[in-house]
Amino acid sequence: MEFVGNVQLVAGNSGSIQKIMALLEQQGVKAQGNPDVYIREYSSFGVEEARELASKASSRALSSSRRTFIIVTPTVTNEAQNALLKTLEEPAGDALFFLVVPSPLMLLPTLRSRAQILDVGSNMETQSVDPRAFLKATPGERLEMLKPLLDKDEDDKRDVANSITFLAALEQELSLDPTNKSEGLGAVYRARKYIGDKGSLTKALLEQVALLI
Q1: Could you give the percent of the chain with pLDDT greater than 90?
Q2: What is the pTM of this model?
Q3: Which CATH architecture has domain 7-117?
Q4: Given a cut of 70, is residue 114 above it in pLDDT?
Q5: Quick one: DSSP state of residue 183?
Q6: Which residues pair with 5 in a beta bridge?
Q7: Full 3-state SS string of 84-137
Q8: Quick one: CA dihedral 79, 82, 86, 91, positive or negative?
Q9: What is the mean pLDDT of residues 57-70?
Q10: Hey, how many other C-beta atoms are within 10 angstroms of the C-beta on 116?
């Protein structure tokens, strides 16, 4: 598999890292124990993380011809995406970037237009809410269907990555239907846009989607 351009978008999670490293090995890049292969996982990717990545990307390769960056995160703020644009457009030393997110559709069009969508095989869990069934349900039924996304884990945190994957699939489903109401599509877009921001009210955003579409 050939990499097109310097930026690869991968739909996945931490389980995608080994698959990406296997692809790098196929391309003749020593992935294991290589100081020029930079791998980081984040619970959320914001402006500070974008600046850190830009700083790392500006440094020279130590033992190979280019540096490779594998970034895994369930959420990327819009501010971080805008901050990344220059780094991705003009990578120092022909750096190669892999951005692993639940769905490339969650990213801004300006960022997606600069990247190749790379399919490394799905390792995501089965979607907990079927977007087609969700659209056919009544508002009350939709609120019930959202409960798996609103459950908290042992650390009292919600599975934001799964929510974003659901919202991206729902937005895609709505965009294919010429009869959909712009208000509903707008609610999905807003939820997907803000759900990863610090302090965002996940429950309120998802419930608004359930009631407006």
Answers
A1: 33
A2: 0.71
A3: 3-Layer(aba) Sandwich (3.40)
A4: yes
A5: H
A6: none
A7: HHHHHHCCHHHCEEEEEECCHHHCCHHHHCCCEECCCCCCCCCCCCCHHHHHHC
A8: positive
A9: 86
A10: 15
